[in-house]
Amino acid sequence: MKVARFSVENAIHYGIVDGDELVVLSGDPMFAGFDTTGERVPLAKATLLAPVIPRSKVVCVGKNYHDHAAEMGGEAPTEPLLFLKPNTSVIGPGDTIVRPKQSQFTSFEGELAVVIGAIAKNVAPERADEVIFGYTIANDITARDLQKLDGQWARAKGFDTFCPLGPVIETEFDVDGGRIETRLNGKVVQSAPLSDMVHSVADIVAHASAAFTLLPGDVILTGTPAGVGPFVAGDQIEVEVPGIGVLRSSARDA
Length: 254
Ligand code: MG
Fold this sequence. Notes:
The protein is mostly beta strands. It contains five helices and 20 strands. It folds into two domains: 2-48, SH3 type barrels (Roll), CATH 2.30.30; 58-253, Alpha-Beta Complex (Fumarylacetoacetate hydrolase, domain 2), CATH 3.90.850. The longest helix is centred in the last third of the chain and has 11 residues, at 201-211. 46% of the residues are buried. The model has no long low-confidence stretch (mean pLDDT 97). Magnesium ion (MG) binds at residues 60, 109, 111, 140, 221, 223-224.
């Protein structure tokens, strides 16, 4: 099931994608279940929004694909390397990434994103599915120059607009059979099976929830494969995970 958050006629709703229509839900399905209002909205009339606004945090995993760790000049860490992005960095599908004046080198990082659906603390890997609401797509935008300059990654990863999310949450996604592909102005720049992840989604949920309590609506970015690179104002970036959709973003300078 594909869950969307969308606006139509100045009101924000949640809905289930059904062909070229949205079946309108009576509330946020993460908290209110899947009761419908009886209304349907054509997808063409709706503006899709970030399908979730992370309740408290976006947890990210660094260097979770061997080939990306190698291109960054190292090896994948033996345990998931965690960092955070603020929820104020989130934008929706079709929104514009703003390249801040402080950075001369902004990079895309296409990633599978896990949407947490229950309060989670010390979750065993084999029980991770119980706290996962579904999956969406993210672009872990990074000011690469500031990442190197600062040492700490909070600023380089945390600017406003640096976390495009969407277009929808797929509640029944099969990670093991999945792929991810990033295109820059139509050219494929990243392409990998999700099975190339060093640490599995279950292990990441376990590792992250051993450190922080995860809340419903928190999001975990699972790392990016090789092929990261710079983008500039005017570029179009697409991250596709078949079975979930395509997350499209444009870019401009501040
Ligand atoms: Mg990343």
